[in-house]
From TrEMBL:
It comes from Anhinga rufa (African darter). This is Thymocyte nuclear protein 1. InterPro entries: 5hmC_binding, EVE_domain, PUA-like_sf, THYN1-like_EVE. Keywords: Nucleus, Phosphoprotein. Residues 10-28, 56-65 have a biased composition (Basic and acidic residues). Residues 41-52 have a biased composition (Low complexity). It is found in: Nucleus. The keyword Nucleus applies. Residues 73-235 form the EVE domain. Gene3D superfamilies: ph1033 like domains (3.10.590.10).
Amino acid sequence: MPWPSRKRDKGAVADKKEPDAKIAKTEEETPDKEEEEKSAKPPAGSSKSGWKNWKKTKESDSGGEESKITYCHWLLKSEPESRLEKGVDVKFSIDDLKAQPNQTTFWDGVRNYQARNFLRAMKLGQQAFFYHSNCKEPGIVAIVKIVKEAYPDHTQFDQKDPHYDSSSRKENPKWSMVDVQFVRMTKRFIPLSEIKAHHLAHKADGGPLKNMMLFTRQRLSIQPLTQEEFDFVLSLEEEKPH
């Protein structure tokens, strides 16, 4: 069982570069013992035109109909750099996922109830962004898909695992995990700072990222995305970085 408890969920850690808004791979219902990641100030000229051009294209495709607010995609945060938790390295990068048999692994270690509930809501075949967190430059690096729906997370019963939960019982497990499989790398790295620039622009003009949980529920390591949010962020891979 390589890289045990690699998807940690025990409180946010300070990002090494981003000093302003709180972004974290992990979270906890109890008071956090670690600092939160911070998101960088958006670059000058936060692009409203990007949203308007995207909106025009989408309206052309859909006849201008507004999509319903439903969550059908996800964002999964994981740490690409080594960090010990209770003596265990919780590092798990996209390269680690690609090195797994069949490029598939279980997404263990989630110890926040809302994040767990999101895991339990995931459906077979749904896609998610793989997000590198708590690193020099956080952001989206790849797309993965759900290949097994929620089932009990075995690490909650392992006393040697940093996410062991003595209050969880095998007959009624508290914590769940899913299996994910690598789909592809994004065409380019999409940094948090760029996503934030669009989020701030969309808050002003009603764009699809205005309520994105990456900025409204920053501490969650498992985050749902609407179809519009997913499509817009995915469209950024076609643009030149700012």
